[in-house]
Predict the structure.
Amino acid sequence: MLAVKTLDSIPVEVSREAFRNAMSVLAAAVNVVTTDGPAGRAGFTATAVCSVSDEPPSLLVCLNRSASVYDTFCTNGHLCVNTLTSDQHALSNLFGGKTSMAERFATADWSTEFTGAPLLNDALINFDCRIGNRVSVGSHDILICEIVGIRQRESGDSLIYFQRNYCNAQQLM
Ligand SMILES: NC(=O)c1ccc[n+]([C@@H]2O[C@H](COP(=O)([O-])OP(=O)(O)OC[C@H]3O[C@@H](n4cnc5c(N)ncnc54)[C@H](O)[C@@H]3O)[C@@H](O)[C@H]2O)c1
Ligand SMILES: Cc1cc2c(cc1C)N(C[C@H](O)[C@H](O)[C@H](O)COP(=O)(O)O)c1[nH]c(=O)[nH]c(=O)c1N2
C-alpha cells in the first residue's frame, strides 16, 4: 500500500537564517509606506508589498508588529505605498533605519490626496489606500488595503532590493 505523508508528519527544520537567505534572492520593489492622521505621521520602508485583487483594487503590506510605527498605522487606518525610483535608495535607508520620524520626512517633498496619507512627490507610483483587514501571521500583520487613488509617473526606473543590496530594474534584464 502507498504511504501518504501528511504535512503534519514533516518536521519543520527551516532555520531563520535559511529562510532569510532564501528570501534575499526574491528581487522586490522598494516602497516607503506612509500614514498621517489622529495618531500622527509615520513611515517605514517595505519590500513585502504585493497585488491582491483588481476588483476591488487592493494590495497587501506586511508590517512587523514590533516596529515603532505599528500603532500609528493601525490607529490612522489608512496609508500610502510610495514605490521608489532607482535613485531613491537614500530615502529607503532613512525610512528603514532607526531614525526619527522628523528626519525620515525632512529630505523629500510630500502632498496628500484622498486619505490624508503623505504621497511622495517624486515616487514612481503612489497608491493611496484605506486599510481594510489585518491578519496576524507570526511577527507580522498583513495589512490588506483598498486602493482609493493611484498616481503614476509616465517614465522612470524602479529601485529593486536583491541579495541585500539595491539595484535598478534595468540591471536585472
Ligand atoms: N519583511 C520584512 O519585515 C523585511 C524585509 C526586508 C528587510 N527587513 C529588515 O531589514 C533589515 C535588513 O535586511 P536584509 O535584507 O539586509 O537582511 P536579512 O538577512 O535580515 O533579510 C533577508 C531577507 O529576508 C526577509 N526578511 C528579513 N527579515 C524578515 C522578517 N522579520 N520577516 C519576514 N521576512 C524577513 C526579507 O525578504 C529580506 O530581504 C533587517 O532588520 C530585516 O529584518 C525586513
Ligand atoms: C530594504 C528594506 C525592506 C524592508 C525593511 C527594511 C529595509 C531596509 N523593513 C524594516 C522596516 O523598514 C524597519 O523595521 C522600520 O523602518 C524600523 O522602524 P522603527 O525603527 O521600528 O521605527 C520592513 N519591515 C516590515 O515590517 N515589512 C517590510 O516589508 C520591510 N521591508
About this structure: The chain has four helices and twelve strands. The chain has one domain: 28-172.
